[in-house]
Every structure is written in C-alpha cells, then in structure tokens.
Specification:
With 237 residues, this protein is of the alpha/beta class. It has 11 helices and 8 strands. The protein binds pyridoxine-5'-phosphate. The site of pyridoxine-5'-phosphate has 19 residues, from strand 8 and helix 10.
C-alpha cells in the first residue's frame, strides 16, 4: 500500500496570514524523505491554499510523483499541460465547500469528461477520477477512459455509528473490487486518519491512499517526518 501525502493544508496555514511560510514544497520534500511515495495538491479555482507558484516549485523539486487534483475546467487544463504532473485527479469543486464534498458525477458529464481526459492523456498525463463507491459511477469511469480511480472514503470516515461504518466500508470494498475487475488502478482517500485507516489498508485491490489533513494536523504537533512515518507503519501492517 503506497502513501500519497496531500500538502494542501500546509498552504492553508500560510494563506491564513497571507505570509511566506510555511512552504508546502518544504513539507513535500520532508514527506518524501520520510517515505511518502507521492505528493498530492489541489489547485482550486479560488486559490484558497495551493498557488501556481507552489505547483511550479513542487514540479521542479519532488522526486516521487506529483498528483494534481483539479476541476475539469479549461483554466485547469492549461495549468496541467504546463506543469505536467504524473497524474491529474479530477474532482468536483464548489466555491463554498470546506473540502471536497463527494465524488464526481461521471454519469452526468460523460461527454465532457471523455473529451477532457483525452486531452490530458495526449500530453502523457495519467488521469484519475475521484468517485463515490457507487457501481454505476465506477463503470462510467471506465467508459470515459481514465487510468485509475480514487474511491471516496469520506462517508466511511465520517460515520459515527459502527453499523454505518461497516456498511460504508463494505461499499468501498465492493467498489474497489469492481474497479479492479474493470482493469482500473484503484486508489482511495478522504477523511482517512490514524484511527480509521487500517480496515482500508486490508482491501487488497487498493494500491495507494491519499491522506492530507490527518498527517498535516499531526505534523503540527509532532513534526512531519514522524507523522509520515507513523502513517507508513500503519500502511505496512
Ligand atoms: N482525495 C481527494 C480527492 C481530496 O479532495 C482530498 C482532500 O483534499 C483527499 C483525498 C485527502 O483528504 P484528507 O485531507 O481528508 O486526508
């Protein structure tokens, strides 16, 4: 199980003061040194955390893989073509959300997404879609031509009752099995932390987890290398 560390919230802290630190790129390098296998960031339309400068610096400096989360807009297509991340992860975006609210509605935007994905693939970028654990949406991901999917673990992570948690875990598992059987590489993420990650690690079809908030929050207290290493230990158990 690989770990992709999302460093958006290092930029959130910087932007809270519109200051020059902390530098997301420094966090990315420390995360890599601690063992992270990829770095993720989300360039939002409103630029609330990551800026284009961060993306440029990340592209120039990181040695693993750069995964760029973005909305499927013309503006972001131009950015992706310039920066050339290894993977673009298409996510839904709405201006007033605190964080990504759910998976992309692939069924409702098949034509747009098929064309958009081809434009990214033509310049050598692998494409992922952040998708809810819904069988029809996953089947649609294959139809629009993605290389991989990231299954949304948000509902699993947020469930308060154990019964709900088990139900959502089962949904994630079934979605991972389906995506894998369709020939897609399977990643997962959203809301995963040091307490809820282990059952997801046990799903053998999932090869990579994208984790941000929990690692950055822990890093603020105990330091980033330690926070990344603790998570990697959980992923290897
Ligand atoms: N995957 C996607 C598509 C996301 O939008 C986010 C949040 O930026 C994550 C994973 C990571 O979620 P978290 O910060 O809760 O670990």
């Amino acid at each position: 199980m690989r770990l992709a560390v999302n460093i958006d919230h290092v930029a959130t802290l910087r932007q809270a003061r519109k200051a020059k630190e902390p530098e997301p790129v420094l966090a990315a390098l420390l995360a890599e040194q601690a063992g992270a296998q990829a770095i993720v960031c989300h360039l939002r339309g409103d630029r609330r955390h990551i800026q284009e400068r961060d993306l440029r610096l990340l592209r120039e400096t990181i040695k693993t893989r750069l995964i760029l989360e973005m909305a499927a807009t013309d503006e972001m297509l131009a950015v992706a073509k310039k920066v050339k991340p290894e993977v673009v992860s298409l996510v839904p975006e709405s201006p007033n959300e605190v964080t990504t609210q759910g998976g992309l509605d692939v069924i409702g935007h098949k034509k747009h997404l098929s064309e958009y994905i081809q434009k990214l693939k033509r310049v050598g970028i692998r494409v992922s879609i952040f998708v809810d654990p819904d069988e029809e949406q996953i089947a649609a991901c294959q139809e629009v031509g993605v290389d991989l999917v990231e299954i949304n673990t948000g509902k699993y992570a947020e469930a308060e009752k154990e019964q709900d948690r088990m139900k959502y875990l089962e949904e994630v598992k079934r979605a991972a099995e389906l995506a894998n059987s369709l020939g897609l590489e399977v990643h997962a993420g959203h809301g995963l932390d040091y307490h809820n990650v282990q059952p997801i690690v046990e799903i053998k079809e999932i090869s990579e987890l994208s984790i941000g908030f929990a690692i950055v929050a822990r890093a603020a207290i105990i330091g980033l290398p330690e926070a990344v290493q603790e998570m990697l230990k959980l992923l290897s158990e």
